[in-house]
């Protein structure tokens, strides 16, 4: 059965960096499910008309067309009940953790690394990315990240809820990783893939958790092409 | 079977305001379990020697002596499996949400309301509280909250992960509340009990969620003595 994952990439189709695509990649790896990666770029929204969606990830799994990383996680648990579950108990707890990853981790990382991204994109995507992100931040991207070393302590402090758990637990899922981990890890993979900046201190419990995540499932994350790898 | 909950209170023993005690109160209400409230004050740590602990809440449930709000939730689910569960799936997800409540919600609220607390305490507790909190903040408590109206927007922005869930879900537990809700709601009850400040805007989804929480289990939270009630 054909399984394809449409993923955001840079000029190099192997450089997959979207946090949401990394959630889907890790979810598939957790289930032990292979897939073919279909490179997709920001300016190719129209290519996803078949999915009635304009953003990646989109998973094509046999007859199922599943856009959105959260829907993909739910689909995988429903379609492959014999594989390790991604979601345990009530889904809203995972939605909270995914919302925290987006509004705290990704938003904080964007202010540290956004200026590293344009150089990795093809010409059409670069023009789109710079214009849309400069509009969002209200200033040139180089200015957003100009004092990023000075911003690091505040970013690291914002990770305190994650730190409070992983200083005693191996994963947000407890003894084993689950979708809570992948939802947060996607943001860190985004930074690792596009930026040389070391966003975590080596003596931070969050760093140790990230190291464990990088090694999961045969090192699928650690071995992926990454500027910061 | 005797069930007693040692709870932090003000000069008025009915004014129970600790966020951790509210977690335990709501957990007991969720399970439909009655209890006798035993008033406890900051300077009575020695009274809890029987629990090998120096802070409340402490639950005495028949032969079981259970200190700490998280341990109380786990105890209640284990001891009363026939009542509605507080924890579903993996506990670490709840620990993350509780850690967020403590490090973001309670920490943010402290900077808004801490100066309202001393007037509610008895003489011994007031001296202890003012000294320990001024040491923590490094300045007089009145100074900490002097510009609290100006701090409100940043506090409200910090609630975004909660907002992202409860704008479409009734509770962090989904259709029904669970311990994720109580862990966060405890912080808001702390503010409501001790301060007249309206920390949430009336058009915020978080406010609507708080209203639902206040009405749960016969209005146990709404009907509790509160300065801001």
Could you walk me through the main structural features you see in this protein, from its secondary elements to its overall organization?
Two copies of one chain form a homodimer. With 229 residues, the first copy, chain A, is an alpha+beta fold. Chain A is 50% helix and 8% strand. Chain A has nine helices and four strands, in the order E-H-E-E-E-H-H-H-H-H-H-H-H. The first copy, chain A, has helices at residues 19-31, 69-79, 91-113, 123-137, 141-144, 148-158, 160-166, 179-194, 205-219, and strands spanning 3-8, 36-40, 58-61, 64-67. A four-stranded mixed sheet of chain A has the order 2-1-3-4, covered by helices on one side. In chain A, strand 3 (58-61) and strand 4 (64-67) form a beta hairpin. In chain A, helix 1 (19-31) runs parallel beside helix 2 (69-79) and helix 3 runs antiparallel to helix 6 (148-158). The longest helix of chain A is centred in the middle third of the chain and has 23 residues, at 91-113. The two termini of chain A are 33 Å apart. The model of chain A has no long low-confidence stretch (mean pLDDT 96). The interface between A and B is medium-sized, with 28 and 28 residues.
